[in-house]
Amino acid sequence: MFLEIEKKNQENIALIDSEGNQVSYGDIVKFVPSFYSAVNKRTLIFVLNDNSVGAALGYLGAMSNHIVPLMLGASMDKELLGELIRIYQPEYIWKPLCMAESKDVLFEGYHYVLEATGLTGYPLYEELSLLLTTSGSTGSPKLVRHSYANLEAQAKNISAFFEMDGTERPIVDLPINYTYGLSVMNSHLYSGATVLLTSMNVLNPKYWVYLKEQKATVFTNVPYSYEILKKLRVFKMELPYLKIFTQGGGKLNEELHREFAEYAKNTGRKFIVTYGQTEGSARMAYLPSEYAIEKCGSIGKAIPNGKLYLLDEEGKKITEPGVIGEMVYEGPNVTLGYAQSGEDLLLGDERHGVLYTGDMVKMDGDGFFYIVGRKKRFLKLCGYRIGLDECENIIKSAFDTECACVGNDDCMHIYVTSEKEHEKIKRYIADKLGINSGAFKVCHIEQIPRNEAGKILYSKLS
Amino acid sequence: MEQLRKYNQVFMEAFSLAEGELTDKVVMGETTDWDSIGHVNLITSMEDVFDIMFETEDILEFTSYTKGKEILKKYNIYI
Q1: Class of domain A378-460
Q2: SS3 content of chain B, % helix, strand, coil (to 5)
Q3: Alpha carbon separation from A198 to A78, A224, A353 (Å, rounded)
Q4: Number of other CB atoms surrounding residue A366 within 10 Å
Q5: pLDDT given for residue A139 in this prediction
Q6: Are A228 and B60 an interchain contact pair (Cβ–Cβ within 8 Å)?
Q7: What residue segments make up the domains of chain A, in order of their start?
Q8: ipTM here
Q9: A196 forms bridges with which residues in the sheet?
Q10: Contact status of A232 with chain B (Cβ, < 8 Å)
Q11: Per-residue pLDDT reduced to its tens digit, A10-25
């Protein structure tokens, strides 16, 4: 069974959610065959996730029966969902009871229902286990194809470097349709722990009630949640059970990294920074807590069973410290590749365990890696991966202006040749991407700098 | 009056609102840009403008234009 759930202590609680539901490992083992009898074959299913026990069971039920789930957020844009259904033709959808449309419900449990779409799915590659969207590239129907071996490696390796022993109680408010949130759940279930699911975030007073009542021991989040945590004076909070703080989903600024590392050290806790991508089944590197202060700002080294190295522009391996190159990861958690159409679900392994991360990185004399920039033109705003070229196209198609987008993970700088409508442009792009407009700055420029071939000289804009 | 002007100014700048739009309908999660990022910006500006430091529970309870006025009383700021 997926994650060897049948080998855990069957009476232990596996999943709890903030709506008051809970299931033991034994309950999951019983749920799996009943889920299969409703679907009855290997096929594609969409799971509309609201971070509840019901959502997680649908995922585990599918994975354990070799039914392939595409994990999506239950609150995702209806139009985009329709587009994904049209492209990938799932035979079934597992969704919250409150979203049920058809009277003809095939199976029901834990406030979730299974509905048939009436579509016939595409043939699936035999090793294909799971589909995820790339972290937040809004509007793109591009999916990441995972193998069974990917998820096994992910669960094993992550539980190894966190030294999990099954007594953990991680709070998971990151969506489990997002690779990082999913990897936290998988690795903890693999180690026999109790996963505390919730769709609330740290600004909800009930979040803190839930965290305290359930005695959460592990907190996992993305950089901007750490900013909020600091604002909430987490350093002064009474949190006797919370022993591990861990961060991923983008680069934490160095000052914040240091503050949390020192807080952890002074209070007998662990602060662990990690690095990952959906394409690498979440985690690929981590900085052990004992190095959190000494190697502040670093993403650490490769996870167990993985390998990291840097390549120069000619594709040669960089061996000396301090030289910047593209970071490459090799390991069993490197995913198969992308899918952009239903036919692509039949594709095999296109990466063969090697992932070019697109991150520009340097290594210090002790072999620790530091991210310094990106090869590809995208930013991570509020944890979402946002393509800069895509944004230029969105703006140019809606406004009469030339446009060039640059910036950092705190703020996108949008240079426009138009002298008016700056507020409107900001509002438009913020709405289109679903991100706070404070993350965008619109500036006027007489002319977009270009080279003789007409290519934009982005280096002249930053 | 001076305090109200300052209080309003913070909201207007944080969420690009006109003074006339500042009513009890300005609520976290509903007003444009008042998401978690917007909340941190709002709280930071309030602290700067009034030279105070909120307690955690007050940051969490500051969920509307109206509620904020109540919360500020705890810090001896009357609007």
Answers
A1: alpha beta
A2: 60, 5, 40
A3: 22, 18, 33
A4: 11
A5: 61
A6: no
A7: 2-372, 378-460
A8: 0.86
A9: A16, A171
A10: yes
A11: 999 999 999 999 999 9
